[in-house]
Recover the amino acids of this structure.
């Protein structure tokens, strides 16, 4: 009888260790990288300045014309400006040849 109780207690401890190990794996491979990415994106949004190229969550490309506390004014075409929440824009990293600039005429 003691053998059965001892075996059950060890099995329970093994299950708890497996759950903890699974949580650690999820944290380091899924949660932590996502948090790092969110911090980087937030820093990029805070560093927006006039003239930066951006794309909105809706897929609209434009150039920042004015930065406000919670929003930015984006020029999407000549004399066409829209106000967009800062959380809905992503800066565009432009390479040396200007390849990622959708406003540049070919």
């Amino acid at each position: 009888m003691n053998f059965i109780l001892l075996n059950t207690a060890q099995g329970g401890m093994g299950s708890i260790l497996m759950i903890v190990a699974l949580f650690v794996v999820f944290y380091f491979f899924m949660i932590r990288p996502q948090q790092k990415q969110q911090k980087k994106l937030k820093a990029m949004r805070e560093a927006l300045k006039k003239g930066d190229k951006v794309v909105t969550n809706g897929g609209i490309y434009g150039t920042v014309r004015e930065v406000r506390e919670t929003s930015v004014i984006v020029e999407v075409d000549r004399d066409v400006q829209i106000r967009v929440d800062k959380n809905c824009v992503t800066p565009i990293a432009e390479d040396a040849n200007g390849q990622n600039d959708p406003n540049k005429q070919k």
Q: What stands out?
A: The helical segments are 2-46. Strands lie at 53-56, 61-67, 71-77, 80-85, 89-91. The longest strand covers residues 61-67.
